[in-house]
TrEMBL record:
Signal peptide: 1-26
Originating organism: Stackebrandtia nassauensis (strain DSM 44728 / CIP 108903 / NRRL B-16338 / NBRC 102104 / LLR-40K-21)
InterPro entries: DUF6528
One Pfam family recorded for the sequence: DUF6528
Superkingdom field: Bacteria
Protein name, UniProt field: Uncharacterized protein
Keywords from the named record: Signal
Length: 300
């Protein structure tokens, strides 16, 4: 049976079009979200469509300096607001956005925020800032994101990514030369991260951290040298793609990989107009993509 979870609504200036969850096969269409930094928007396309302004399925953007250089996007389902969009920006902001484009909460982690995650059941938010730390935000009321406040800062040099793992009940984070597992303790304003002592060494500065949607026991990560498959039980890393400058790397549940590789061209040498798929590349003229994500609310 085809799995179709709909997220309806529109962001600023977008048509009201549903965002589909991942489909069962790479031969079928599924939706992909990118952070596009030239126009500073989150853009969603059907993978199999021609990519241009008329085929955008959902978009959101802001002219605020704090939202400049959008660096992360992901989707999470909530009981109170339905599907929400989590976003982080190198300009300094991180936040929660509804499918209609309403910003429910904005935090200011500082230090070049690169990633954001939501801890289920307690609605805590964790961000990763490349300045060298993880930031934990706890609410006083799960249904009211405006009550989120910073409750903890955890040192992690080069922090670039965070991901909740419901199978192991840990938060994975990636930084310089390491992927590390943290236990989440407490709730609400007492939410805290505690190092479990479990980690996987990387040869380079860590960058992207995503689930492997084909296997809940695996992660896909990148550092400055390559992309890897991380086994969360064995705590080992295996090279998947020996290539530098991979800024985003994701595996669809069909087994297809998609990735963004920086083209080292000004004005944003860390970006590219192209998202690479095993089934073929997709390019948006003049785009400066940084991250690419499958439109999928599942953690794994």
């Amino acid at each position: 049976m085809k799995r179709r979870t709909l997220l309806r609504g529109a962001a600023v200036g977008a048509a009201t079009v549903p965002l589909l969850a991942t489909t069962a096969s790479a031969s079928e269409n599924y939706q992909v979200a990118m952070t596009e930094q030239r126009t500073n928007r989150i853009l969603v396309f059907n993978k199999d469509d021609a990519w241009n302004e008329s085929t955008i399925k959902w978009k959101w953007g802001s002219t605020s300096r704090g939202w400049s250089n959008l660096s992360d996007v992901r989707f999470r389902d909530t009981k109170h607001f339905g599907r929400v969009v989590l976003a982080a920006a190198s300009g300094g902001y991180a936040g929660i956005i509804t499918s209609a484009g309403k910003v429910l909460w904005t935090g200011e982690p500082g230090g070049n925020p690169h990633a954001i995650e939501r801890i289920p059941n307690i609605a805590a938010i964790v961000t990763a800032s490349s300045g060298g730390y993880l930031n934990v935000y706890g609410p006083t009321k799960i249904t009211d994101p405006s009550t989120l406040a910073k409750v903890q800062t955890v040192n992690l040099p080069g922090a670039h990514g965070v991901l909740w793992d419901p199978s192991l009940n840990v938060l994975w984070a990636i930084g310089d030369y390491v992927v590390r597992a943290y236990q989440v303790t407490g709730s609400y304003r007492e939410t805290r991260l505690k190092d479990t002592g479990k980690s996987v060494a990387l040869p380079g500065g860590g960058h992207d951290l995503q689930p492997d949607y084909t296997n809940p026991g695996k992660l896909v990560v990148t550092d400055t040298k390559a992309a890897y498959e991380v086994d969360t039980a064995a705590l080992t890393a295996k090279v998947l793609r020996a290539e530098t400058r991979i800024k985003a790397f994701v595996r669809h549940r069909s087994g297809e990989y998609l990735w963004v590789r920086a083209e080292n061209v000004e004005p944003r040498p860390w970006s590219s107009p192209t998202v690479h798929f095993d089934s073929g590349d997709k390019t948006l003229a003049d785009a400066q993509f940084y991250k690419a994500r499958i439109v999928e609310a599942a953690f794994e």
